[in-house]
Design goal:
- The protein is α/β, with parallel strands linked by helices.
- It has two domains: 149 residues, Aspartate Aminotransferase, domain 1, CATH 3.90.1150; 268 residues, Type I PLP-dependent aspartate aminotransferase-like (Major domain) (Aspartate Aminotransferase, domain 2, 3-Layer(aba) Sandwich).
- It is 37% helix and 14% strand.
- It has 13 helices and 17 strands.
- It has a seven-stranded mixed β-sheet with strand order 6-12-11-10-9-7-8, with helices on both faces.
- A hairpin with a 2-residue loop joins strand 2 and strand 3.
- Helix 2 packs across helix 10, helix 4 runs parallel beside helix 5 and helix 11 packs parallel to helix 13.
- The structure holds pyridoxal-5'-phosphate.
- Pyridoxal-5'-phosphate binds next to helix 4 and helix 5.
Length: 427
């Protein structure tokens, strides 16, 4: 793929001209810097606002204004069934059956709710295997879960770290750890794409190894959903959670997504923390005692839908539906390979950039995590003052996420140009 790239502006122009998704960019608002669109590489943290969100929210406000409580039952999209309007589009994003997916709450809350069902430690099996350096919220969730069940994190949590001198995890090491601790492991809980390094984990192999060891396997897909194509159903994961405000562009604090594999759909014996919205919908308003869960992931719902944030999420998911994860991934591979090519060129020219994200496209999404030694912070600050939005993660990583949804090859080239400028000024 790299042979199709060179360092000229023409190259970026040609790639944009051939980009069949180029027009998607016009469906988003870009923050402004000195009268121009910023170079936005932060979709891994908060996706940009689709222009369709505002009218979607206004529709719901209008619906409320006009109908009051009757809005639950009237109109094209009665609030009563709102979670269903997002189900199939969300299922396409993660490669699931519609009934395996529900949109509800927020990521960390959902992680706890699903661990009530899928982390059931006993004297023999009580361990959780996870990645060292997991996103802090996941670490806190795991620690507090094992403590809640009466175990000490030091005995119950097994962390898998990269080998000394390496930056990312080797699948073989993950599988070996699962084999080693298998008989004592209740849950393997991994990320889909690692937030710090951008590494895409082998979800299918990890799931298979976890199951062979007799454990359940769950995934945090915060950095995977909307970034990489997945087939959660076929890969047999037991459960997964994700958020909608990163690559899924649904706004700050947007609603979380949940996947529960079909084989658990009718297992009414799974312990869970229940609420009325997870109760059999035929009987929900009979206000009876005795919880009977709905089939599938919907049976884990607690409360009625947060209409405004769901409406924003739906507006965004509709764009994913029309673009398709396959086409997005195709562009994403090109866009990230192009960024990689230009970063390597800068390194050759003397800017000490080092990509810690895997070089193999099959092991990464769109994000490249870059270190730059002692100059790192200065480079990041230079980019920020010149209208680039990316992020700095302690201790020394700059994360750059060109998203196929709204970034162009021209954006990546403009970033390259700024970094060349930094190099010239600091040589
Ligand atoms: C972004 C992110 C979260 C955020 O959790 P919220 O509950 O949505 O605040 C959690 N875990 C991972 C891995 C993340 O990347």
């Amino acid at each position: 793929m790299k042979t199709m790239f060179d360092t000229s502006a023409d190259c970026a122009r040609n790639l944009d001209a051939q980009d069949t998704l180029a027009q998607l960019r016009d469906q988003f608002y870009f923050p402004q810097h000195e009268g121009r669109d910023v170079l936005y590489f932060c979709g891994n943290s908060l996706g940009l606002q689709p222009k369709s969100v505002e009218p979607a929210l206004l529709r719901e406000l209008e619906h409320w204004r006009t109908h009051g409580v009757e809005g639950h039952f009237r109109g094209e999209m009665p609030w009563m069934h709102y979670h269903k309007y997002l189900q199939s589009a969300a299922a396409h994003v993660v490669g699931a059956l519609p009934e395996e997916v529900v949109i509800m709450n927020t990521l960390t809350a959902n992680l706890h709710l699903l661990m009530v069902s899928f982390y059931r430690p006993d004297a023999r099996r009580f361990k959780i295997i996870m990645e060292a350096g997991a996103f802090p919220s996941d670490q806190y969730a795991m620690e507090s879960q094992v403590r809640y069940h009466g175990y000490a994190p030091e005995e119950a949590i097994v962390e898998i770290a990269p080998r000394p001198g390496e930056e990312t995890l080797r699948t073989e090491d993950v599988l070996e750890t699962i084999r080693q601790h298998g008989p004592q492991t209740a849950l393997v809980m991994m990320c889909g794409v690692q937030y710090y390094t951008g590494q895409w984990m082998d979800v299918e192999a990890i799931t298979r190894a976890g199951h062979e060891a007799g454990a359940l396997v769950g995934f945090d897909l915060a950095h995977a959903a909307g970034n990489i194509p997945m087939r959660l159903h076929d890969w047999q994961a037991d459960f997964a959670v994700w958020c909608s405000y990163k690559y899924l562009n649904s706004g700050p604090g947007g609603p979380g997504g949940v996947f529960v594999h079909q084989r658990h759909a009718d297992n009414k014996d799974l312990p869970r923390f229940a609420g009325w919205w997870g109760h059999d919908e035929e009987r929900r308003f009979l206000m009876e005692k005795g919880f009977v869960p709905m089939r599938g992931a919907a049976g884990w719902q607690l409360s009625n839908a947060q209409i405004f944030s769901f409406a924003a999420h739906k507006a965004s998911l509709d764009i994913f539906e029309s673009a398709g994860m396959g086409a997005l991934r195709h562009k994403s591979e090109q866009l990230t390979a192009y960024l990689e090519f230009l970063i390597d060129d800068l390194t050759e020219k003397g800017l000490p950039l080092h990509i810690i994200t895997p070089r193999d496209p099959a092991q990464r999404g769109c994000q490249l995590s870059v270190t730059a030694g002692p100059q790192g912070r200065a480079i990041f600050d230079f980019l920020s003052t010149h209208g680039v939005v990316c992020d700095w993660r302690e201790p020394d990583v700059i994360r750059l996420a060109p998203t196929p949804m709204y970034n162009s090859f021209g954006d990546v080239f403009a970033l390259y140009h700024l970094l060349l400028d930094f190099l010239r000024r600091n040589q």
